[in-house]
């Protein structure tokens, strides 16, 4: 899952990014209003951590941009202000949750996972699609109750596909979500095919159905 961290305190920004990367999130950052709005206009994120007070503008205004451009993106407000008005305003604008500085990184991680579950999987602790079951906490995958071994990218691919069932996903969008924003500078995205093909083989070899549909010249679709 890909996260945009909007935070102007450099030390805190580095700490959050380092912690979440260890939790296998793809992390992108912005430390000003302008940098954040530029990224939001080009890229799509699963979660945005939005500081309210940032140079050049307000995090509350960024929430409006996110809701207009990417209404499916989860939003977690991060602020030093323990203000009820700010909290209510952010939630009224469409933010999913609110955390006040200082906070424990483990709590932040727990809140992010909670927002993702609500946004992507209706709050379920386990992700289930027919014979496929995923436990996000320990990152295990079962096919008909038989555990299979996936690489990190194969696991992320499966989660991304199930979260976007029946939606056409271009190779570019898949690459950005799993490798980060700068992957759009790559000469081609042929490496995506290799990872998808390996994932497909592991699922079908374990007795699962092949839900991955290749739309030639366009991308892929994970179907029911």
Helices and strands, with pairings:
Elements: E1 2-6, H1 10-22, E2 26-30, H2 33-42, E3 47-51, E4 53-54, E5 57-58, H3 59-69, E6 74-79, H4 84-93, E7 97-100, H5 105-121, E8 127-129, E9 132-135, E10 140-143, E11 146-148, H6 152-163, E12 168-169, H7 171-179, H8 190-205, E13 212-215, E14 219-222
Parallel strand pairs: 1-2, 1-3, 3-6, 6-7
Antiparallel strand pairs: 4-5, 8-9, 9-10, 10-11, 12-14, 13-14
Helix pairs in contact: 2-3, 3-4, 6-8
Brief summary of the model shown:
With 224 residues, the protein is of the alpha/beta class. The protein has helices spanning 10-22, 33-42, 59-69, 84-93, 105-121, 152-163, 171-179, 190-205, and strands at 2-6, 26-30, 47-51, 53-54, 57-58, 74-79, 97-100, 127-129, 132-135, 140-143, 146-148, 168-169, 212-215, 219-222. It folds into two domains: 2-121, Rossmann fold, CATH 3.40.50.2300; 127-222, Winged helix-like DNA-binding domain superfamily/Winged helix DNA-binding domain (Arc Repressor Mutant, subunit A), CATH 1.10.10.10.
